[in-house]
Specification:
The structure is a homotetramer of 203-residue chains.
Chain A: H1 5-36, H2 39-45, H3 50-56, H4 60-83, H5 92-109, H6 113-118, H7 124-148, H8 154-177, H9 183-202
The structure holds a DNA duplex (21 and 21 nucleotides).
Chain lengths: 203, 203, 203, 203
DNA sequence: TATGAATGAGTGTTCATTCAT
DNA sequence: TATGAATGAACACTCATTCAT
């Protein structure tokens, strides 16, 4: 029809290729860790040749970065849902519920990502943005605390937010790596742990 | 003096070399992760040639294993101190105090080890015993719970022990990587978090 | 023309590469022996990089194995020609002629192979099949002896076959390493030696 | 007693060390071939440290050379016995007997040497003198032929001598590597083969 | 002399990346 | 765009040789 149709079709194909590749990378990285994963293995898993991989990604790091971006974007979207909440009014258990649920979902949708981005073998360039994201979560929790426990000194507020994030992160790992039939148990316990930790502060 | 003097001196030198090497390995592994660490870099850091490294360690894995063993042995000793406690009588805060302190100390003495042995790029042979150790901690906590919260159903007891261990591990990481002047704050918060989590169970 | 053309062309190139590499390996192995030959030297001789060598051969041993297989297959074909002979009827000189000719030809076509596969530095996995082949030759000669010298006791038959094979092998080495213009002389003498050794037995 | 006694004693000890080392080298070379044998293994087998080995031998090659020299000297002595024979008069079988016996004995006394010095992995410097020795044997046989078959043209005389030497060498290998209880059989067959080959020439 | 720890060049092999087709 | 053969810098590891003791 239009003369732009082939270009669009081409672009669509390119999009598909990139997804094939990032999906394959996600699998291979998850199985082997960043350092042990080979780009040839990723290309093979995606059903393309190594050359093709390098037409879409500058190098191995760029692949991981794409993965990280995809993960981070989903997380950011989850954050928005999680924190864009009239949290001032909610009772603590429900507050935690609403905050935790989308984050858990993202990690269930992206198994292995959490482990990957905690990997010691990861190049610093990739670890940094992940830490930034982590800090963003801490910041959000600080905001909640500021609203709900206004009398808490700033220093303690930060400490509390960091610890809550750490607890959340650690138990998130347990949830994600758990067998499906046990998952609910771990999710309930994750929430319970956060409640017990935050209750005396938020009251 | 004695004719055995040179042998003893040589052995002492060997001992020193091994320590130089494991120390260098600890540093390099901690900085780069297992997979990215190169044996030549470790040798260079220790101030010796690659050949010398291989006179003391069969291969890269053996180096990591030596490190793991050293770490595990210190941890095991810490466990003994931590759990060989008349815990039946102690109030919860002190119980947590006594359990946490030696474990924290070991990890402060061995910075980077915790991160290393969580590394996804680690050969399974080395990851497995570390997981076993983790399980042992869980088991110990279960024992404590059995003694102090006998009415808790077994399933919940296990869940609680696992979660307490995870919380401890996560916050231990924060403690170890914190600047020295902030460390006390994080240690206090670690204990507080555990207390709040366990209090409703132990009563 | 066809869409399969590039694939075919690629395969042809692969075939050529393998030949380049086995040829180079044959040269380098022959010059230096198995153990002193380096894979990098073989790659260089073939005009390719070390990585390319390893795209076609799993490791050094596989290269030698390919060579061994090529050699053995030619030898086996030669055996068939050599021994699939109505030998019951032929006079001894002609019998020897027919048996020796194809074996000699194979070794002239593959200079250095005989030496290589007698190399003490060779991995056992490769030496074993070569010994098996040697035994096969002995067995064939025993068959001939059984047919042509039925009164010879079995033990002596075997001894005679072994010795004939050894004589043949030794003089084959002389033939192969001789200057071309002298080769005929050595071939004639090889046959003469076998005749003189076997004549009193076969009568 | 005398002031030279300690020097002499020292020298005697040195002599013993050299023998320990060459003996050890003979074993290790025979087991592993020249290239795969390690000087450290040789030192260990001799019960000394690597440093000591290098106090007596400049390098690995020098060790092999010492071995070669020892072997060659024994062979030379054997030659003298073998060929310093009033061969003009002896009947062929006895002539062969006398020539073969000492050579066989040397090789039985030095198992593995023959194989070692035929090793393709051997440095040229060591292979050359061995070839020279081989040529000497050929020369001696030519002399015998000149005396016993004066009508044989020089060219044929040489050819015959070379082939006789090759046959002898090949079957010598069989003799040396045979189990002890079979050795006599192979020695007899060796002589028989030589007889049959030389009989028509020497008449 | 004797030791054995130390050396370091060199080996087989891998894998991120490029490029001719 | 896609291919996959080709590259070559690195890596883990070995071993002939040296040297402080």
């Amino acid at each position: 029809m239009s003369e732009e149709a082939p270009a669009r079709r081409r672009q669509a194909r390119g999009q598909r290729r990139m997804e094939q590749l990032t999906d394959a990378a996600a699998e291979v990285f998850a199985e082997a860790g960043y350092a042990r994963a080979t780009t040839n293995a990723i290309a093979a898993r995606a059903g393309v040749s190594p050359g093709t991989l390098y037409q879409f990604f500058k190098n191995k790091e760029a692949l991981a970065e794409a993965l990280a971006t995809r993960y981070r974007e989903q997380l950011r979207a989850a954050h928005e849902k999680a924190f864009d909440v009239g949290y001032a009014q909610l009772p603590l258990p429900e507050l935690i519920d609403r905050m935790a649920a989308p984050m858990i979902q993202v990690n269930l949708d992206n198994p292995g990502f959490k482990a990957l981005f905690a990997d010691a073998g990861m190049p610093e360039r990739l670890a940094a943005p992940t830490r930034a994201l982590h800090q963003a979560v801490v910041g959000k929790i600080e905001e909640v605390l500021a609203a709900r426990a206004p009398s808490l000194p700033a220093a303690e507020r930060r400490t509390t937010a960091v610890v809550a994030t750490q607890i959340f992160g650690a138990l998130l790992g347990t949830v994600v790596s758990a067998a499906e039939e046990e998952r609910e148990i771990w999710i309930r316990e994750l929430k319970r742990a956060l409640q017990r930790y935050l209750e005396p502060v938020i009251a």
